[in-house]
Amino acid sequence: MGSLFRFLYEYRLFFLFVLFEIISFWMVINKNTKQQIAFLNSSNEFTAGIMGVSDAVSGYFGLVQENEKLAGENARLNALLVKSQQTIQKMAMDSIKIPEMLDQYTFIVAKVINNSVSRPNNYITLNKGKLDGIKTGMGIISPQGVVGRVMVCSDHFSTATSLLHSKMLISAEISRIHSSGSLKWGGNDPDRANLEFVARHLKPKVGDTVRTSEFSNILPEGIHVGVIKKISLKDDATFYNIEVDLATDFSSLNFVYVIENKLKAEKDTLQFQTTGQTE
Amino acid sequence: MIARNVFQLVFKILIYLGIYFLVASRLPAFHMALCLSYTAVILLLPIGSNAVRTMIFAFAVGFLVDIFHSTPGIHTAACVLLAFFRANFLNWMVPAGGYEEYMTISFPSMGLKWFVPYMLGLLFLHHFLYFLIDYSSFEQIGMVFLKTILSSIFTFLGIVLIQFGIEPPKRAD
Over 80: is that where the pLDDT of B31 sits? Predict the structure, then answer.
């Protein structure tokens, strides 16, 4: 018995090494199945606080570009406002009213306080949380285009899966020919993603615009995704290989809109009742 | 005297971690290389540090960084590996005449011939395990190697710069 203890003591460094590695890999594996350990997450108050400070400092360096973007966004929204006022006037003349359909989506502005683009699975931390009305599963867009989906929320912060994530799929369609597919990130270039499941009888062209489709439960229809950059079709393939140039510049994300779909629960329940599956 | 040394060490560790969290972690070069400069707090510990305590410390540092990046386990695993091989490296690379009391791990003190292989070797091991777990597939092993090599060099340069900034080499009298 004594010699056993002496042996253990002699190689204590190695045993400690093995023990710690086992603990680390246990954490890695657990995280990959489901990231639910709340405190092991950058949405907790302590780390998010530090990132908030860091972002407050680095935010000053991007003020010029940010102002330009905001001005552009203002102009676009003004145009939209005018257009929608016209539609409302027209609608008022009509006797049919569908209030839920008119404001199906609400937008919450949030600031990105932590972000990465160079890892195989990227996450975003936002400075708004449960108390601001953010819930798991909400969609996120930026003024430029699609960003991702909320994953975990604490009271004041939330962590989201970026579009640059190996498990993230978004239903998108080529707006010119209305053919939908799934948008998936390839894993290396943060400016490119692949549009999958576009059948070979369709005729997409380089330069076509890709937007979110109406099948998406988390994002409204028609949000800009990007532009087709490259199309290839193997002789034996059923689907095209389409490379999309993403509109969102993920490396300079700053302000984003978190979108709440008020009819999501209703749609989900209905789909679940019919098919027994949720999206 | 000893209390002062401990205080200095803790202070330095906080500065290295602070620089990593506030600056270096936001410096990905061309989406390829990362500057994981927090490894400095393990790499640059005094030579005489107890190996077991170093490993417990490395575990804690890795855990903290993991919480910060929402990547449970990845940095921890890499840090523990780093601490294990640091103890071995220090044994293999004993300079002629052994380590002296005044030696610290920095290139003015140990010389380029000792410092560069020590740093790059350990950083390579740490980064390799980190990227291997991060990609968790052998299909992209080429990408893992490329990122490991580029990031090791980037981190090395980052650590040397930070070290010069916060512990300027004293002039030999």
Answer: no
